[in-house]
């Protein structure tokens, strides 16, 4: 069991980070408002999780203006894609290989 657990990435343990990464992997990018609405989070909660993912190198941030309004959008990096897929593969192996028979 311990061998399976060592491949679980602690950066993706929370429901919020799993949600953020899942959304960003199926979309080219998502802006802050879309993530907030989709995941039903407060500004502060979403911002702190996005910052952690950014600091880990999993998400990149692009700030721009649309008209005169600021817009922040997020995109998964190649490193983030690889790390998240490895995490999901580890979860799958853990479940499949430890099912009671």
TrEMBL record:
<dbReference type="InterPro" id="IPR027395">
    <property type="entry name" value="WH_DNA-bd_dom"/>
</dbReference>
<dbReference type="InterPro" id="IPR011991">
    <property type="entry name" value="ArsR-like_HTH"/>
</dbReference>
<dbReference type="GO" id="GO:0003677">
    <property type="term" value="F:DNA binding"/>
</dbReference>
<dbReference type="InterPro" id="IPR036390">
    <property type="entry name" value="WH_DNA-bd_sf"/>
</dbReference>
<dbReference type="GO" id="GO:0006355">
    <property type="term" value="P:regulation of DNA-templated transcription"/>
</dbReference>
<keyword id="KW-0238">DNA-binding</keyword>
<protein>
    <submittedName>
        <fullName>Winged helix DNA-binding protein</fullName>
    </submittedName>
</protein>
<dbReference type="InterPro" id="IPR036388">
    <property type="entry name" value="WH-like_DNA-bd_sf"/>
</dbReference>
<feature type="domain" description="Winged helix DNA-binding">
    <location>
        <begin position="16"/>
        <end position="95"/>
    </location>
</feature>
<dbReference type="Pfam" id="PF13601">
    <property type="entry name" value="HTH_34"/>
</dbReference>
């Amino acid at each position: 069991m311990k061998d399976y657990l060592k491949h679980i990435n602690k950066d993706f343990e929370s429901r919020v980070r799993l949600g953020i990464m899942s959304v960003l992997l199926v979309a080219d990018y998502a802006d802050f408002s879309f993530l907030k609405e989709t995941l039903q989070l407060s500004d502060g909660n979403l911002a702190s999780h996005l910052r952690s993912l950014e600091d880990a190198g999993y998400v990149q941030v692009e700030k721009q203006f649309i008209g005169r309004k600021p817009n922040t959008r997020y995109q998964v990096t190649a490193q983030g894609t690889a790390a998240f897929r490895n995490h999901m593969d580890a979860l799958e192996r853990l479940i499949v290989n430890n099912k009671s028979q």
